[in-house]
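Cross-check.
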Amino acid sequence: MEHPQLKNLYEQVVAGNFKWDRWGLLSVLSDYVLYYTDGQILEIGCGESSIHLSKLAEKYNRKCFHVEFSKSGVQNMKNTKGYFGKNSEVFNMKSDEFFERLEVKMARQPKIALAFIDGDHTFEQAKRDYINTHKYVVNNGFIFLHDTYPPDESWTVPEKCGGVYKIRRQMELDNQEMMFTFTRSAFDVGLTMIQKRE
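Predicted model, tokenized:
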């Protein structure tokens, strides 16, 4: 049975009501990336963003790999029309396990044009997700990180933004990648866009 609130989100996306305070910016920027960049889509941590990425996977005929640990979360999304599309492949496991499987099955390694990371919010895990993802992203491809600009210190607990903002700070100091953080987007907690340099 479809969850009524989830169904409403799907209908908003299909109607083009992206809403800048939610995932509108991710959706528009991802459309731009996929228009110019060959490769697949990877999402770590599923939710409302999955609707946008699934639709873009169909629009550009790309595979979209969704990785989500929560069994009940995946079940709810699978039972709701539109969360996952015909080009979606869902992996109900921890991201570390997903990347271990990719390492073992070398022939199956995807070339990623666009990745969105919004999984575990601890600094250590989010950084591991970023490093693991980076290996598979094509040159000039993009990685988006969520929760990179918490409004205040109360948002730095694991159930909110956690330590993801520390990755953004570290990368700004390193100046190794081209990046920009949109502070007023994606639920007002920051969306950082990183382009992998050649």
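The longest strand covers residues 137-146. Residues 4-195 form a domain with the Rossmann fold fold (CATH 3.40.50.150). Passed to J.P. for a second look.
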